[in-house]
Specification:
By secondary structure, the protein is mainly α. It contains 6 helices and no strands. The protein has helices at 4-7, 10-40, 45-75, 80-104, 108-137, 141-167.
């Protein structure tokens, strides 16, 4: 059983919080970017898909970049804790700016560049907090990560439910219906 004291440890609570912020920004852009490109920028779905693909490739590549930066900083004498704080803090700030700037981008190309920069920042954010689940959770790592990810998806699911109610259609991947 997952010890209750672990759930209220300050380090675990901060890990939950950054997981919530990360998922909220990442999944909001992932879920609504196609609509934004096609409706706001009058882009075809195929072209929008290309923009989204580039942003997702940047996210995957960013995981390697983030790990390389962490290794380089460790070699230069920085502590792992300070690197994670820096990566998580700056990554989260850049993600927030990315969500804001994505909506203001005057062209689909600039929106794609912002989305890609957001995804690069997300690589640093996720690398900063996901290791905390392992370090603090120990043998309870999987249970702790499950709790954190469940909490982190509440804002995303509420957003989808709100949009479903507003538009009169279901916007859940499993229950997807045609929205006109």
């Amino acid at each position: 059983a997952l010890p209750a004291r672990l759930l209220v440890h300050p380090s675990v609570l901060s890990t939950f919080w950054i997981n919530v912020a990360d998922n909220a920004s990442m999944y909001t852009l992932q879920q609504w970017a196609l609509v934004w490109f096609t409706e706001h920028h009058a882009t075809t779905a195929a072209r929008a898909g290309g923009f989204l693909a580039v942003a997702n490739v940047v996210n995957v590549a960013g995981q390697f970049v983030s790990a390389g930066v962490e290794s380089a900083l460790l070699r230069h004498g920085y502590s792992l804790l300070s690197i994670r704080r820096l990566g998580g803090g700056l990554g989260s700030l850049c993600q927030a700016a990315g969500v804001f700037l994505f909506g203001l981008a005057p062209s689909p190309l600039l929106a794609s560049l912002v989305f890609s920069a957001h995804n690069l920042a997300e690589s640093f954010t996720s690398n900063a907090y996901e290791a905390n689940y392992i370090e603090f959770g120990g043998v309870h790592c999987a249970a702790l990560y499950s709790v954190g990810n469940a909490l982190a998806n509440i804002p995303v699911s509420d957003h989808a439910r709100f949009e479903s109610a507003r538009s009169g259609c279901l916007n859940f991947p499993i229950l997807q219906t045609q929205c006109s």
